[in-house]
Design a protein that fits this description.
It is a single chain. By secondary structure, the chain is of the alpha+beta class. The protein contains 3 helices and 7 strands. The protein has helices spanning 2-12, 99-106, 124-192; strands spanning 22-29, 32-39, 49-53, 59-64, 70-73, 81-88, 91-97. The chain has a 4-stranded antiparallel beta sheet with strand order 4-3-6-7. A hairpin with a 2-residue loop joins strand 1 and strand 2 (32-39). The longest helix is centred in the last third of the chain and has 69 residues, at 124-192. It starts with a helix and ends with a helix.
């Protein structure tokens, strides 16, 4: 009877709340760094301020997430960028983009092209308008790709969390099953003895 009281007490005791993991990621996006900030349960951190620091800890700038938990930051120096956000209740997100990737965004790591004979220079007005058109097209393509990739990133994060939850619930079921087996064997011993 004492064992039954102990098990009932353990099963009826309040369980600690499951803490959410923070999801934070950064990746190159055209001439900017795009990032995502949210929780593993699918809630995104909308309107959250993010502080960007360099490798020496000096602040490089700040940005704020949009309603979907995404943010953009345009780097100015080819150094490692650390993005940090305090989401409250002990949830702190911190993610770093290495200097090599930032340098790639800025074009500092582009390999030198072999020297070739330059083509005939177009008129200055035509060159400027073609460059502006190319930049507009590049930005439109980058925005379209960002919009297409966002749902995929969310699905991957949700899948990872779902797998973790399945593992936890499976472990709890295994433990409960072992307790049940123990009670069954104890009951048989009492009946036999």
């Amino acid at each position: 009877m004492r064992h039954l009281f102990l098990i009932t007490t353990l099963l009826c005791a309040p369980l600690p709340a499951l803490a959410h993991k923070v999801i934070a990621g950064v990746f190159p996006s055209g001439d900017a760094i795009e990032g995502e900030l949210g929780f593993s349960n699918g809630d995104m951190a909308a309107g959250t301020e993010i502080v960007v620091t360099g490798p020496d800890g000096a602040e490089l700038g700040r940005t704020i997430t949009d309603q979907d938990g995404f943010f953009l930051f345009v780097p100015t120096a080819p150094v490692a960028h650390t993005f940090r956000a305090d989401l409250g209740a002990g949830h702190v997100a911190e993610v770093t983009m290495p200097a090599e990737e930032v340098a790639g965004i800025l074009g500092a790591a582009a390999p030198a092209a072999p020297e070739a004979e330059p083509p005939a220079a177009p008129a200055p007005d035509a060159d400027a308008s073609m460059a502006a058109l190319a930049e507009t097209q590049r930005r439109a393509i980058a925005e379209a790709v960002r919009n297409e990739i966002r749902p995929l990133r969310r699905e991957i994060a949700a899948y990872r969390e779902h797998k973790d939850l399945q593992t936890i619930l499976g472990g709890i079921g295994y433990i409960v099953g072992l307790f049940g087996l123990g009670f069954y064997l104890a009951a048989r011993r009492r009946l036999a003895g």
